[in-house]
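Recall the central idea of this unit: under ordinary conditions, the amino acid sequence of a chain determines the structure it adopts. In this exercise we apply that idea directly, starting from the sequence alone.
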Amino acid sequence: MSTPTQQPVIDVSGLVKRFNGKTVVDKFDIQVPKGAIYGFLGPNGSGKTTTIRMLCGLLTPDAGAGSCLGYDILRQSDRIKEHVGYMTQRFSLYEDLTIRENLDFMGRMYKIPARRAKVSEALETLGLADRSGQLAGELSGGWKQRLALAACLLHDPDLLLLDEPTAGVDPKARRDFWDEIRRLSDEGVTVLVSTHYMDEAIQCDNIAYIAYGEKLIDGPAKDIPQIVGLATWRVEGTDLAALSAQLEGKPGVEQVARFGSALHVSGTDSEQLEAAAKPFMDDTRYKWTRQPAGLEEVFIHLMSGSTDNFAKDKAA
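Accordingly, the structure predicted from this sequence is:
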């Protein structure tokens, strides 16, 4: 006997948002399952934050429709906001208050029952208890991040919105942060993350690539390279700059990108790509290795075919 499919937490179609006559998000569709960590990947200014804020009822779309947490995004946005935790890119709590005072203030804003006990619980959960008397303005980026996360989790939201959550923090703090996000996901909290960092993208269950207001592709993170159909060769050796210049523009070679001490040579026609690379494979200065395309190669590939909103408007 089959079990019924669970309704998506977010189900929207045709979302459009314009600012000053400019289309920032254009005909956006998506479904987000409960408990998913959904990454929105794209360059700065691509509409990631605007899109996510519309999905959560924090911004009203100019066109389109859909639901979030069972509420209509156009008519019931206030109900949605009650169940959303929003962590902004820039630290937005009070730097002249202590960690505990900031959380207590947020608890008052949310009218949380047993507020003091809830604040103490949040301090313990996020590892902030020993620093609870420290002024927020004296915290490092990683500790500010923990405080911001604690603040937006106080009211036990069903949906968490993270806007570039780990910008400017060290690798250890980033890892600790993502361990906490995974724990929340396992408990059924749905998480939307806007980012342009590949090491954050691989932490997500699903990814939507957004460029200049348009969704290019979305799906399970592990399946994205296969969906795009990008083949890649890794090339190691000396004088890679000269090799890159020779490969550029060859039939089948759609992108040549430097990754550390190697080149990644990619294209969507595997046979044509290999034919273009073959004349260079006998050169003993280089070692060629076929490898699966990664999210970063896909990102570069998709973005290279996209046009900036401003350029579109000028062309029109």
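The CA atoms of residues 281 and 288 lie 7 Å apart.
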